[in-house]
Amino acid sequence: QELQQAGSAILSRVPGEVSRAFQRLIVAESPATGLTWKMQRKDGSEAFVEASVSPVKDEEGGTAGFRGLVRDVTERKLAEEKIQRLNEELEQRVRERTTQLEAANNELEAFSYSVSHDLRAPLRSIDGFSTALLEDYSVHVDEIARDYLQRVRSAGQRMAQLIDDLLNLSRVTRSEMCSVRVNLSQLAAQVGEELKEAEPGRAVEFVVSPDVTVQGDARLLRIMIENLVSNAWKFTGKKEQAHIEFGVNREENGPVYFVKDNGAGFDMEYGDKLFGPFQRLHSPDDFSGTGIGLATVARIVRRHGGDVWAEGAVGEGATFYFTLLGGVQEDEQREEASDPVG
Fold first, then answer.
1. Which of 213, 227, 260, 292 is the most exposed, having the fewest neighbouring CB atoms within 10 Å of its CB?
2. Distance between CA 41 and CA 139 in Å, rounded?
């Protein structure tokens, strides 16, 4: 009873939540730790103190008193409050930045619609009227004029393809990701079969390592594999016997995936340009394309937390390597195995 009265006198000087904790301590006679409250020093300044109190038992097992430790934790509390304020400011900045990004994305959506709609219309007109001139006025148009009109049509078609590629690149950057288990081997084999069906006259050997699976967005990874394999298909177009391979190397830091070909290759001196939009190391007369495919690959890989690079030599083919966060190889016993497709 005397202990409770003494404790109540002390508790009248501390905040309610701390007082209630002390009350539970007195009644239950169990330790209380980490009790923190604000108090005023003799000089009038404020301080934070932290108390830990435990009962002291007598020989008969009763409570003879309480032993406590009170520490000045002002510096720690002020630091915590500062961190809290900084976190709140950071969260506010993140919210503001998110709002700005959403507005920018909305503007980009509007621009994309404008590009896909407003620019396509005049391109269709250019192509349509050029075709009409070639077909309806062929007897009045000489060879030079026909060549000019064909060049106009080709330029218009190239511009339309460029618009499509830019829109696809934009969608890759903005689309939401859905992470699932994806079998890259199946994707590579499917793309290879589709390319063979489109050009059945070509002699191309496809080699695909089996059961290479990763965690990622199935749609984006399909686009990535499609671009890499199609790129290999295109640049082996002048080979009598083309060879394209998809596989994986198990490195110390994780699996490294690759698409390899024996095609035209490239000069490593300019290799840093490969993954930039519109960067091409070959003439459009030699190999078609807009220079967007590898830029799309790079963005997809980086959205999956990975990296992409290439090695090659002129006339000796190229190998494109990439890593993916969470990449796994299901059957480690099949590291050296391969599955010819075609």
1. 213
2. 105
Helices 184-198 + 218-235 axis angle, to 10: 50
Residue 125 in 3-state DSSP?
helix
Q: What share of the chain is helix, strand, coil (3-state, %, to 5)?
A: 50, 25, 25
- Give the pair of three-digit tokens for residue 28: 């239950």
CB 202 within 8 A of CB 242: yes
Q: 26: how many CB neighbours lie within 10 A of its CB?
A: 19
- Decide if 70 contacts 36 (C-beta within 8 A): no
Question: At 340, is the secondary structure helix, strand, or coil?
Answer: strand
Half-sphere CA count of 96, side-chain side, radius 13 A: 6
Strands 204-208 and 242-251: parallel
Helix (H) or strand (E) holding 96, with range, is helix 74-114
Q: Indicate if the pLDDT at residue 182 is higher than 80.
A: yes
